[in-house]
């Protein structure tokens, strides 16, 4: 099989960067995958596990000869990476590889890129976000099938070269993902509601219970529902700190909207408003059942 591209460079070889590297090699999309990061031990482990072919600790050497560069570090580090990389191609944009990312927030990266590129999006920078992952981190947790049957959101810009967008789209399609386009603002609002708010709630709930004087009993007698609701509180704290900082406005809006709903439910419990509670729980059950059916149908296809 002829690979679509010669060299993919992954900046930050963790769960997502490692899983993408594995998938691109397994599907023959990229002839070589090279890693770069700040921790040599995890890059060396990546070579040992066969996730990447080689690595370099030198960013300039990593960029040299890359066809596609994927920034796969925590969100705030990713913005800093773009601010370091983009000026290297000022006045010679034809030398720039196609650059993309996997970060959970897009607005801060768009701002960083525009700030480093005279107020416009660089033609070959195409922002993206795979909606797949887990509470685990690091290259050891990476899997070639992580993105299969999952969605990847791209936020192409009018300033993007169509060929660059197509290459990033083809890269994700090669992993078995479904690719959808969105605006940066819609992405950050939707993800604040569906991903960032649930993580904030899980962290807040577990932290509140852990600090309670009865925490030993609370955790000893917790059942499956507690486990299901709180799995994501085992996610990496640095990653989620970055997301909360980068998507501040949208996260605050969803927390405020949710707080209103919680206050209404509190009132219904306080006033023994049985009808109000039943309505809330029934609406939520119907919506959750519909979501579960949608997930099942997607798995079957
Ligand atoms: N974990 C998940 O489920 C998902 C995460 N994402 C996003 O993907 C990105 C990566 O997340 P994960 O792979 O889960 O994290 P991870 O912690 O497994 O990997 C992050 C990698 O970045 C490297 N790194 C950290 N700081 C660095 C620095 N200053 N310079 C160079 N490299 C640095 C780390 O050494 C590590 O290899 C994040 O932006 C996250 O928001 C997107 C979808 C799902
Ligand atoms: O562990 C889970 O269920 C997740 O929600 C994984 C996840 C984390 C961050 C993202 O930006 C996308 C997916």
Automatic annotation (TrEMBL):
Prephenate/arogenate dehydrogenase domain boundaries: 6-299
This protein's record includes keyword ATP-binding: no
Reactions listed under catalytic activity: prephenate + NAD(+) = 3-(4-hydroxyphenyl)pyruvate + CO2 + NADH
PROSITE patterns membership: PDH_ADH
InterPro entries: 6-PGluconate_DH-like_C_sf, NAD(P)-bd_dom_sf, PDH_C, PDH_N, Preph/Arog_dehydrog, Prephen_DH
Pathway(s) per entry: Amino-acid biosynthesis; L-tyrosine biosynthesis; (4-hydroxyphenyl)pyruvate from prephenate (NAD(+) route): step 1/1
EC number: 1.3.1.12
Record GO terms (molecular function): NAD+ binding; prephenate dehydrogenase (NAD+) activity; prephenate dehydrogenase (NADP+) activity
GO biological process, any: tyrosine biosynthetic process
Pfam family, one: PDH_N
Top enzyme class: oxidoreductase
Swiss-Prot/TrEMBL keywords: Amino-acid biosynthesis, Aromatic amino acid biosynthesis, NAD, Oxidoreductase, Tyrosine biosynthesis
Family annotation (PANTHER family): PREPHENATE DEHYDROGENASE, PREPHENATE DEHYDROGENASE [NADP(+)]
UniProt record similarity statement: Belongs to the prephenate/arogenate dehydrogenase family.
Protein name per Swiss-Prot or TrEMBL: prephenate dehydrogenase
